[in-house]
Amino acid sequence: MSVHVFLPCRKGSERVPQKNIKPFAGILHGLVELKVTQLLACSAIDEVVLSTNDEEIIKFASTINDKKLRVHRRTDTLCSSLTSTDELVSHACKLIPDGHILWTHVTSPFINTAVYERVIEEYYRCLENGFDSLMTTTPIHGFLWNGAGPINYDRKKEKWPRTQTIEAIHEVNSGVFLSSSANYLSLKDRIGVKPFLYPMDKITAHDIDWPEDFVIGEALANKKLANL
User: Fold this and answer.
1) Which of 66, 102, 129, 173 has the fewest CB atoms within 10 Å, measured from its CB?
2) 115: burial class by Cβ within 10 Å (0-12, 13-18, 19+)?
3) With contact defined as beta carbons under 8 Å apart, do 185 and 93 qualify?
């Protein structure tokens, strides 16, 4: 089964200017250079489709001599802050009409080559056990409330249970979505109807979305708390 990566990387981050390609932890072309390197080194991946409208990223990608990398110049109409995920799902399906699509982001720097290998291996096992897709999550064991009260424990049974015993709530961390192109086509979604939730620790799942996330990510990388 062929695995094709969909790596969306638009120009114009509003929260962290040029966050995809600005230097990161001593890496000249930053998060995009790190991510492309991680993905191309993964033996379980057959192709990496980098979809971008950023001329700097396209220029950088043109220096990479690897047949596994396909650079797609995305139209600006699919690169605004108003572009919906549903529109990108359709876009990914058109770029990758066959095989399996691994959707990931450059903003997950600590999901490295070894992690991708393990995730893909788990995905194959899941397909044999009744699941039709996989997405990575960060389990939360804390006290979670909404306006009506706690949502993950019962105060009538125990007002403050040990957090270790609270059933985890899974936060989708957007590190990896892995599903077949057939699911994309039929369901118009990047997961199927029965996704396997693949848990990750907080460092591996660290997502760079805000300026402080970038600072924390660089600190983690520079102190080698995570293996890039």
Assistant:
1) 129
2) buried
3) yes
What confidence tens digit (pLDDT) does each residue in 122-180 have?
Answer: 999 999 999 999 999 999 999 999 999 999 999 999 999 999 889 899 999 999 999 99
Q: Cα separation of 120 and 32, whole Å?
A: 21
Rounded Cα distance, 104 and 4, in Å: 11
Tell me the C-alpha distance between 88 and 138, whole Å. 23
Residue position matching structure tokens 């960060």: 138
Alpha carbon separation from 41 to 59, 91, 108, 157, 158 (Å, rounded):
21, 25, 16, 50, 49
Provide long-range contacts, Cβ within 8 A and 24+ apart, for 88-94. Answer: 88/8, 89/184, 89/188, 89/189, 89/190, 90/188, 91/51, 92/6, 92/8, 92/51, 92/184, 92/190, 93/181, 93/184, 93/185
Per residue in 35-75, pLDDT (tens digit) is 999 999 999 999 999 999 999 999 999 999 999 999 999 98
pTM as predicted: 0.94
